TrEMBL record:
Pfam families: HNH_4
Protein name: HNH nuclease domain-containing protein
Matches recorded under InterPro entries: HNH_nuc (IPR003615)
Domain HNH nuclease positions: 212-267
CDD domains: HNHc
Gene3D superfamilies for the chain: 1.10.30.50
Signal peptide region: none
Lineage, broadest ranks: Bacteria, Bacillati, Bacillota, Bacilli, Bacillales
Domain of life according to the entry: Bacteria
């Protein structure tokens, strides 16, 4: 009954790679009891927040609940994949459907289009469900070796060795988690819901729009293309917000990894990594954002950012196969 635990201490501080792979294999295989897709969603939430950990390798329950809620909103509302549990309806489904119905939200609404106050209310309810059914369950499957957690402090602390392992093999872990999550959802749902299912699972963390980031960047940066320095005139479709390190690797949106780009550079760069010289430019840009301490919005967006994070992100993306280097 590990899912009922309120506190879980880290049982093994040091693990070899083969030990971690062995545990991952168990978690993803039929040897791990899965009455719902919760464990996969928590794994995806951890991956989305790998670069948001603080110096103690901690993640807050709010960070994880936001990712977890976004995953299920886009599965349940946007793709109508209602069955996420064997047997009775999963609690997270009930929470999300109640909010959708009470506010008459149409199915085409992805999570980031919802009103901010409603998002917070929804995340708070999902966070309570995660405390009851999620953290302890995956903790038990990993034999307490992957992370510690504390419901009172509302923090999850990753084993540093596991964090490093997930960075090293991020792309492979993402693909494995997506595949097994899609396979389970396919068992629980019927056609036509399961059409192109793997693609739906792969894209559930992606924002529909980065316009909010565009407004911030235009306020505090020159209206020039980050790559070719072309002036961005504001003509429709000319200004793009680009993930400096490709989204397909990062799997999340952070302003410190976003830049303004012209249409030509954004299209040409696509899913490639910019040449390393641009890394120094984005580090300087981020330093200038950090200095805007009078702006609470910027302060919150840059929370947990450290220069070493984007350097680490760049290096790990190459290790994970993003080794086609692009320049304008």
């Amino acid at each position: 009954m590990s899912h009922k635990l309120k506190v879980g201490e880290l049982r093994e501080a040091y693990l070899l790679e083969e030990d971690i792979w062995r545990v991952f294999t168990v978690v993803l295989s039929s040897k791990s009891a899965k009455s719902s897709t919760y464990k996969y969603a928590l794994m995806k939430s951890l991956i989305e927040n790998l670069y948001q950990v603080n110096e103690r390798h901690e993640l807050s329950y709010d960070q994880l609940a936001y990712s977890f809620t976004k995953i299920y909103w886009n599965l349940i509302v946007h793709h109508q994949l209602i069955n996420q549990n064997r047997g009775k309806i999963a609690r997270v489904v009930t929470i999300i459907k109640e909010v959708q119905d009470a506010n008459s939200i149409p199915p085409e609404f992805v999570f980031d289009k919802i009103d901010d106050a409603l998002q917070l209310k929804l995340v708070s309810k999902v966070k309570a469900t995660m405390k009851e059914n999620v953290y302890g369950a995956l903790y038990g499957d990993t034999r307490g070796s992957f992370y510690a957690f504390d419901h009172k402090k509302e923090t999850l602390t990753l084993n540093p060795k596991v964090h490093q392992f997930m960075l090293n093999y991020q792309r492979l872990i993402v693909n494995l988690t997506n595949y097994h999550m899609a396979a389970m959802i396919e068992q629980l749902n019927e056609v036509p819901s399961i059409n192109y299912l793997l693609g739906k699972v792969e894209s559930i963390a992606k924002r529909s729009s980065l316009s909010a980031f565009e407004r911030v960047l235009l306020t505090y940066s020159k209206a020039d293309c980050f790559y070719c320095q072309k002036t961005l005139t504001g003509v429709k479709r000319e200004t793009h917000v680009d993930h400096f390190i490709p989204w397909s690797f990062v799997q999340s949106d952070h302003i410190w990894n976003l830049v303004l780009s012209c249409n030509r550079c954004n299209t040409s760069k696509s899913d490639k990594l910019p040449e390393r010289a641009f890394l120094e430019y984005i580090i300087k840009r981020n330093h200038s954002l950090i200095e805007k301490k009078e702006d609470e919005t910027i302060t919150n967006l840059m929370k947990n950012y450290k220069q070493k994070k984007i350097v680490m992100l760049y290096d790990y993306s190459i290790k994970n196969g993003f080794d086609t280097i692009w320049s304008p």
